[in-house]
């Protein structure tokens, strides 16, 4: 049995070979870049107007209008003191422009322009290079591409982006009692739901599940299911059959497939029988079957590792501290990830903390980390993982 910190360290210390690929700009949200991106040119690449209005030469209140420039126009004006041109947002400002005045602050009679206020030098001009200068580091290798990142990369004229490949994930659920939702349920059976929860948790963070398989508690079937699944997966996630019962075959089936245990059992609640192993460049998480245990282990251990395999600097769930909204006592002897709800700047520990109970997790939005045998008074700080 390892501690939570030891389990995290074992995961973090895995030597992984990151693979790269080239993706179209429109198809790289959530991927991490595999090489630095530097600005190929100044941004903006020319002085341009921030307003629809008039580009002015010299500082005064009266000007003569000598022409017009719209966004995208190539024409060049040589402005003399006291002259102005009609200009639009994004249009290149003529050389010698002192300021741009928005049209709402102007009056025009024929070619005579009168300003309602004195312009300030440089007003409403977006200067060449004011956001980025040519050669400047824009994103460091490992940056996870956001929608704004996509916008910026596009505005640098880059269409194909070098990124780290994301791992392919296969899922195996085990258990004789499990049947697919939608089918009639006999006595003693329950609906298989972990694969749905885990696949959608992967999807929520931009990871895809390739293959999903449900296998009965039969050693040979589990063993061959694992063998087959490992052929295509970078990461295999199993649920159930990892505890000590007579029908818990997963650990042995992994061993017989040549998967080497990195840790088995974590001193925590839920998720004590969590297993992590590897076979060459393939990794296996065997999650406890209890629905809240499997999902909680996904958030706390699997997700950070998926990011690690994707070359990302993110390490999974962001942790934040919130004051607890009520007195609380964790009587358990293991450090706990408790189903919780953050609202109005406070965290509430929800009822229904059993490892098999997923209702509270579905109604909550966080996992609150509380040490074993700990009493907290209302207002004390609690570390939370957001699971929105
Ligand atoms: N003698 C002991 N028994 C147990 C121990 C222990 O230390 N000694 N640990 C308990 C803890 S803690 C956990 S957690 C569970 C984990 O057991 P398994 O990983 O072997 O899971 P299963 O027995 O297969 O299933 C547990 C529970 O979850 C339901 N389940 C399983 N898979 C699914 C699924 N895909 N969808 C929905 N529900 C699922 C299953 O029906 C069981 O009710 O072991 C304790 N026992
Ligand atoms: O480790 Mo288990 O998830 O407490 O029932």
TrEMBL record:
Keywords: Magnesium, Metal-binding, Molybdenum, Molybdenum cofactor biosynthesis, Transferase. Pfam families: MoCF_biosynth (PF00994), MoeA_C (PF03454), MoeA_N (PF03453). It is an enzyme of class 2 (transferase). Residues 170-308 form the MoaB/Mog domain. Its EC number is 2.10.1.1. Its cofactor is Mg(2+). GO terms for molecular function: metal ion binding; molybdopterin molybdotransferase activity. It catalyses: adenylyl-molybdopterin + molybdate = Mo-molybdopterin + AMP + H(+). The keyword Aminoacyl-tRNA synthetase does not apply. Pathway: Cofactor biosynthesis; molybdopterin biosynthesis. GO terms for biological process: Mo-molybdopterin cofactor biosynthetic process. One of its GO terms (cellular component) is cytosol. SMART domains: MoCF_biosynth. InterPro entries: MoaB/Mog-like_dom_sf, MoaB/Mog_dom, MoCF_biosynth_CS, MoeA-like, MoeA_C_domain_IV, MoeA_C_domain_IV_sf, MoeA_linker/N, MoeA_linker/N_sf. It comes from the Bacteria. Belongs to the MoeA family. Catalyzes the insertion of molybdate into adenylated molybdopterin with the concomitant release of AMP. This is Molybdopterin molybdenumtransferase. It comes from Gelidibacter algens. The lineage of its organism: Bacteria, Pseudomonadati, Bacteroidota, Flavobacteriia, Flavobacteriales.
């Amino acid at each position: 049995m390892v501690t939570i910190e030891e389990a995290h360290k074992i995961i973090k210390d895995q030597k992984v070979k990151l693979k790269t690929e080239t993706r179209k700009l429109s198809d790289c949200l959530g991927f991490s870049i595999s090489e630095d991106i530097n600005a190929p040119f100044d941004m903006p690449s020319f002085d341009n107007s921030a307003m629809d209005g008039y580009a002015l030469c010299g500082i005064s209140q009266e000007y003569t209008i000598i022409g017009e420039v719209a966004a995208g126009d190539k024409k060049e004006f040589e402005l003399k003191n006291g002259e102005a041109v009609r200009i639009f947002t994004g249009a290149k400002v003529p050389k010698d422009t002192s300021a741009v005045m928005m049209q709402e602050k102007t009056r025009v009679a024929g070619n005579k322009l009168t300003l309602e206020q004195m312009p300030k030098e440089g007003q409403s001009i977006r200067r060449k290079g004011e956001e980025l200068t040519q050669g400047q580091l824009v994103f460091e290798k490992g940056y996870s591409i956001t929608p704004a990142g996509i916008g910026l990369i596009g505005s640098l004229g880059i269409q194909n982006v070098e990124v780290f490949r994301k791992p392919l994930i296969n899922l195996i659920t085990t258990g004789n009692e499990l049947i697919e939702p939608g089918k009639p349920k006999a006595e003693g059976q329950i609906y298989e739901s972990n694969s749905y929860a885990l696949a959608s948790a992967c999807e929520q963070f931009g990871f895809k599940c390739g293959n999903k398989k449900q296998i009965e508690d039969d050693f040979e079937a589990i063993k061959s299911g694992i063998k087959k699944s490992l052929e295509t997966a970078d990461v295999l996630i199993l649920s159930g059959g990892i505890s000590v019962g007579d029908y818990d075959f997963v650990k042995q089936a992994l061993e017989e497939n040549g998967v080497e245990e990195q840790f088995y059992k974590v001193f925590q609640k839920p998720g004590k029988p969590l297993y992590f192993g590897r076979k060459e460049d393939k990794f296996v998480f065997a999650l406890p079957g209890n629905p809240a245990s499997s999902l909680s282990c996904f958030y706390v251990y699997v997700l950070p590792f998926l990011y690690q395999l994707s070359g990302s600097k993110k390490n999974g769930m962001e942790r934040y501290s919130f004051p607890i909204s009520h007195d609380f006592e964790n009587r358990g002897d293991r450090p706990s990830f408790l189903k919780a709800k953050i609202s109005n700047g406070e965290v509430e520990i929800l009822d229904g903390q059993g490892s098999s109970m997923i209702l509270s997790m579905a109604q909550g939005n966080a996992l609150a980390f509380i040490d074993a045998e700990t009493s907290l008074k209302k207002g004390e700080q609690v570390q939370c993982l957001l699971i929105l």
